[in-house]
Amino acid sequence: MKKILAIIKPFKLDEVKNALTKININGMTITEVKGFGRQKGHKEIYRGAEYQTDFIPKVELSIVVNDARVDGVVETIISSAKTGKIGDGKIFIQPIENIVRIRTGETGVDAL
Questions:
Q1: Where are the domains of the chain?
Q2: pTM for the full model?
């Protein structure tokens, strides 16, 4: 099993969620985060004064799937989150040792 952690632009969340639902990915955790990479933040003007904002708002999706589904999920996220502009985000793939469903006690892939 793998955990797919995707950091995307907030306005792409609905598009990504809908695309994942179409490939039968129904469970995910969403977290609002802030960060920066090559973007290095951006400047905003508020009441005539210019401010440097170092951290850009993003959305972090956390999805756990069995190994066979990883490539399809990653491709779906890329195709639905990509704008072609700097700041589109990143996808991290991590191994998951085990999962336990609290309600039933199921473990492993059965707990997904």
A1: 2-111
A2: 0.85
